[in-house]
Specification:
The complex is a heterodimer of chains A (about 500) and B (about 325).
Chain A: H1 2-8, H2 10-15, E1 39-40, E2 43-44, E3 47-48, E4 56-61, E5 66-72, H3 76-92, H4 99-115, H5 117-128, H6 132-153, H7 157-160, E6 167-168, E7 171-175, H8 181-194, E8 198-202, H9 209-221, E9 228-230, H10 235-243, E10 249-253, H11 256-265, E11 273-276, E12 282-285, H12 291-303, E13 315-319, H13 320-334, H14 355-370, E14 374-377, E15 392-395, H15 402-405, E16 412-418, H16 421-429, E17 436-440, H17 444-453, E18 458-461, E19 480-481, H18 486-491, E20 494-495
Parallel strand pairs in A: 1-5, 7-8, 7-10, 8-9, 10-11, 12-13, 12-17, 13-16, 15-16, 17-18
Antiparallel strand pairs in A: 2-3, 4-5, 6-20, 11-19, 14-15
Helix pairs in contact in A: 4-6, 4-9, 5-6, 6-8, 12-13
Chain B: H1 2-7, E1 39-43, E2 49-54, H2 58-77, H3 80-96, H4 98-107, H5 112-130, H6 136-140, E3 142-144, E4 150-158, E5 161-165, H7 173-185, E6 188-192, H8 199-209, E7 218-221, H9 225-234, E8 240-244, H10 249-259, E9 265-269, H11 275-280, H12 282-293, H13 297-301, E10 303-311
The chains are: A alpha/beta (about 500), B alpha/beta (about 325).
């Protein structure tokens, strides 16, 4: 078209060859409407304890590396107080409430979250480094949706368990990660409360802010004291919580390594437990797929939330015939990704959550290259302060490469090729993980065939990283045990008068 | 005299119409002896020798797991209808060999009534679970109304290879309570038989072998729990361990600790009835046990929920 135009209008064409600047103007989200404290105590029995400077830690804004606020590190006695509060609330109040009563509180939580969505989104991005577009459009709306969904289950539980009378477990100890702070809180608290349990939840030490702000919201809702308790801290606090003799259930989301430590540590207790652990999802791209759409899918699969996603599609398996073309398209697309200020609405890739995580990613890429991989990085400029890592692809890797087998938890994609469908399935299943996989093809029957053979709890086809409160999520193999979300998600929070089984 | 011989088919053979059986492992549809070359003596309550049974080793566990892994997809990929029919056939064959099992149980110290009631309960339980193969996803699966253009559904799939640690008694019913939900689930398994009362489980292998159950779907090994639980709970290609709550605390903890190596799912169910209880109140104990075992939620524990997002577009 342009050639034709230039021949028709040669003079005009010459006059308009001024290069166009396609760069975006800055579009930062305002932070003027959000407030938070410089220091926080623990949320126990409906109110905040006094902040304890001698027993505190700081949480930084990863976009600039500066301290954002300080938290109290919950000690063994703090955790004990939280568990006691939860126990009292369970036995005295919440455990005796009708499903209808519980549902009313949960609906209100969902509503207040929707009302304060913007505020929570900004805080989430400041505290964790994720692009405001994601916290605004995904994290916070989904967190509200999970509360709304499980609110509706609270008075309908008998329909969820045919032939049984479900009963709450009691006090649930819940430990969540830093990649989706408020959303993971919602995944944990909403079904637990719907089923009549009370909780003690520990947010990750780098992202406690939205959990603490959530406590303010609970006070507004008027949730009875002790039903939800939030204890901030790091591994030590988590250990106090897991080891507490008076908890009835453990729900953990985090690394496979820590999951195994927890499983070993509770071996003697026959404690109901659910684990949401690591992953190494394959994105299987067949040659009949719409390639441009598939490339958008790949970008979403691995670069969403800086790749800090347990179910990330971190391994691209592309059919040989289209591999070259796909890699070429992907590289071109990557050049348009904007790495930058998480609060800027144009930002595609925000800040890496912490200095430690940045170092882990750097180490993995270095190992990949040492093991023979070829590295390509997006050339977007990186902010000078804070923790950032450019979207990266590694080609020339083999199935046994550490970057193919191990979870990197960053914006790093490995690329392998395959010839036959069965080879793709074999490669996809050949890691210790089994959380999620993706299939990209134009053929519906192939989706069902490949999907039925993939060993993972989630199979996305012609999409990736989609979440919904009605849709169960969780892993096979070393990616965890149990499901969160949907009907299956209720299972983790009830005791069934099962004709004698123990689990 | 003739009557006595029918009741003691495995006692010392003096006439040609009663030949004692050699009890062996059941791996990959075959009856190999243990690789260890060792045995222990199974005795009647009065101390009389009944049979030598293999003291299996780590190597037998390995062979059995390998066979189970190889067979798992074959079993799981059969249609639900087909799996239901095969399981129903197990009940048919077992029913036809009822007397043989009753005799073995009596040899081990069961009363006639307890033995009869237990075998009846076994047949009933197999028929019960056979009927679940094509219903589990209808009752417990779901189509999920997600807020996007996707047909989203969750169904139950097998976990994979299961290690089954049988309770000591009830000798056959206890083992079946653990095995049957796993067969419905589409898993393949390695069963560690009861140490004190292994004969009914060993003989059950003959029922499996003649019921169209694909070789390797169910594997049975005999021996000491102290020698077999460590290798099976440490095995990286075993996905689930199930046992009975009567298992010694020491072994239960071992199962949980070792299972962390590859995040095995570990479940303990309740079916134990002591021999004394079986003999003193067979009716009550066995019917309670069957009631406890007839629970489809046991199947769900040994399955994985897989959720698929299927696109909807023009």
């Amino acid at each position: 078209m342009s050639e034709k135009n230039s021949s028709v209008l040669p003079t005009q064409s010459k006059q308009t060859t001024v290069p166009i600047d396609w760069s975006y103007a800055e579009a930062p989200e305002s932070i003027s409407h959000v407030t938070f404290n410089k220091s926080y105590g623990l949320f126990i029995n409906g109110s905040f304890t006094e902040y304890n400077e001698n027993q505190s830690f700081e949480s930084t804004n990863p976009a600039n590396g500066e301290c954002l606020y300080r938290c109290t590190e919950a000690s063994e006695s703090d955790v004990d107080a939280a568990v006691k509060a939860a126990r009292t609330a369970f036995e005295g109040v919440w455990g005796n409430y009708s499903g209808t009563q519980r549902s009313h509180y949960l609906y209100r939580i969902a509503r207040l979250l929707q009302e304060r969505a913007r505020e929570f989104a900004v805080l989430e991005s400041m505290d964790g480094g994720k692009p405001i577009r994601e916290s605004r459009d995904i994290d916070i709306p989904l967190a509200a949706a999970y509360f709304f969904y499980y609110a509706g289950w609270a008075d309908k539980l008998s329909y969820a368990f045919p032939g049984k009378t479900p009963k709450p477990l009691g006090v649930c100890a819940q430990i969540i990660p830093w990649n989706f702070p408020l959303l993971m809180l919602a995944w944990k608290i909403a079904p637990a409360l719907a089923c009549g349990n009370t909780v003690v939840l520990k947010p990750a030490e780098t992202t406690s802010l939205t959990a603490l702000k959530f406590c303010e919201l609970l006070q507004d809702v008027g949730l009875p004291d002790g039903v939800v308790n939030i204890v901030t801290g790091a591994a030590k606090t988590g250990e106090y919580l897991v080891q507490h003799p008076d908890i009835d259930k453990i729900a953990f989301t985090g690394s496979t390594e820590v999951g195994k430590v927890i499983q070993r540590s509770i071996a003697e207790r026959q404690l109901p437990s659910t684990f949401e652990l690591g992953g190494k999802g394959a994105f299987i791209l067949f040659d009949d797929a719409a390639l441009n759409e598939a490339v958008e899918g790949i970008v979403n699969a691995i670069f969403f939330n800086q790749g800090h996603v347990c179910c990330a599609g971190s391994r691209l398996l592309v059919q040989e015939g289209v591999a070259e073309k796909v890699i070429d398209l992907l590289k071109k697309r990557m050049q348009h990704l904007i790495v930058g200020d998480p609060l800027d609405k144009n930002t595609d890739i925000g800040a890496i959550n912490s200095k430690e995580q940045l170092e882990t990613i750097q180490r993995y890429v270095k190992t990949g290259i040492q093991e023979g991989a070829t590295c390509f990085e997006c050339s977007s400029s990186l902010p000078t302060s804070g923790y950032y890592f450019p979207p990266t692809i590694l080609t020339g890797v083999s199935q046994s490469s550490s970057v193919v087998q191990e979870e990197i938890f960053g914006p790093v994609l490995t690329i392998q090729t395959f010839r036959t469908t069965d080879e793709a399935i074999e490669k996809a299943n050949n890691t210790p993980y089994g959380l999620a996989n993706g299939i990209w093809t134009d053929k519906g029957s192939k989706i069902f065939y490949v999907g039925s053979k993939l060993k993972s709890g989630v199979v996305w086809s012609n999409t990736y990283n989609k979440f919904d409160p009605t849709s169960p999520f969780g892993g096979y193999k070393e990616s965890g045990k149990g499901r969160e979300g949907g009907l299956s998600g209720l299972h983790a929070y009830v005791k069934l008068d099962n004709n004698g089984g123990v689990y | 005299m003739a009557n006595e011989q029918t009741n003691h088919p495995t006692s010392q053979a003096t006439t040609m119409n009663s030949i004692p059986k050699t009890y062996k492992n059941y791996i990959n549809g075959e009856f190999p002896r243990t690789e260890s070359g060792r045995y222990y003596s199974v005795e009647a309550l009065d101390g009389k020798h009944i049979a030598n049974v293999g003291l299996s080793s780590k190597k037998d566990v390995r062979n059995a797991v390998q066979a189970a892994r190889k067979a798992q997809a074959t079993w799981a990929q059969k249609t639900a209808y087909n799996r239901g029919q095969i399981m129903y056939r197990i009940a048919e064959i077992l029913s036809g060999r009822r007397e043989q099992f009753i005799n073995e149980m009596i040899l081990l110290g069961y009363s006639q009534e307890a033995a009869e009631l237990e075998i009846n309960a076994c047949i009933e339980l197999i028929v019960y679970f056979a009927g679940w193969t094509d219903k589990i996803d209808q009752v417990f699966g779901s189509v999920n109304p997600v807020a996007s253009d996707h047909f989203n559904f969750s169904r139950h799939e097998p976990v994979g290879v299961v290690g089954i640690i049988s309770p000591e008694t009830p000798s056959l019913l206890g083992m079946l309570g653990l095995l049957l939900p796993n067969m419905v689930a589409g898993n393949s398994q390695v069963i560690i038989a009861s140490k004190q009362f292994p004969l009914p489980t060993c003989t059950f292998a003959e029922v499996l072998a003649t019921s169209d159950v694909p070789a390797g779907t169910v594997n049975i090994i005999t021996g000491l729990k102290s020698e077999l639980i460590p290798p099976i709970s440490q095995h990286m290609d075993v996905d689930v361990l199930v046992g009975d709550v009567s298992l010694d605390t020491e072994f239960r903890v071992l199962c949980e600790v070792e299972s962390a190596s590859n995040m095995k799912r570990v479940y303990f169910w309740e079916s134990f009835i002591s021999l004394d209880e079986l003999n003193s109140s067979p009716n009550e104990t066995i019917s309670t046990c069957v009631h406890s075992l007839k629970d489809p939620y046991h199947i769900l524990h040994v399955q994985e929920v897989k959720t698929t997002w299927h696109p909807i577009s023009e």
